[in-house]
Here is the input.
Amino acid sequence: MNVQIYFHIIDKRFFILLCVGFLFSCESDLKKVQKLSETSFVPSGSADTINLKYTDSGRIKSILKSPKMLDYSAVSNPFTEFPKGIHLTLMDVNGYKSTVVSNYAISYKKTKIIDLQGNVVITSHDGKKLETSQLYYDQKNEWFFTEKAFKYTDEAGGYLEGPGVDFSKDFKVFNMQRSNGEVNSID
Here is the structure.
């Protein structure tokens, strides 16, 4: 009878050790599962050296070039990122070309806002140029805006600079917060 009690005690100790070991291993596995279920920002697609041409009715309207594009369309607020910058050429109905260049760009699909950052330069077909460190473009309203310092130059050698500006995509409507500069008229 003493031998049975001894084995019974060993069985209980072994069972307790087994349960404790199992609980600790479950905790470790639980942490692994929690890490796997965390939201990870992994692009659903990526492309290197892109050259996209947008056409409408057989006419090229824009050409987008970038060394790298990352597509995050599977996240709750989908966006497309261009971590190495963009070079965008826009063509109007008369065939005039304007360009937009930046070191970085991100386009938000739901809001239709494009955020351009780092050495942003917009050059129009008629020689107008705007330079800034960050510029937003509202695709829905076709409107540019920034709170950052900017410099605007025109074909006649005039310039405006200051903090904050918003303007239409064709530069016809131009609103500045505070600016200074020199505007020359063309005869």
User: Anything to note?
Assistant: The longest helix spans residues 2-37. The first strand starts at residue 45 and ends at 56. Residues 28 and 136 are 46 Å apart (CA to CA). Residues 1-38 form one domain.
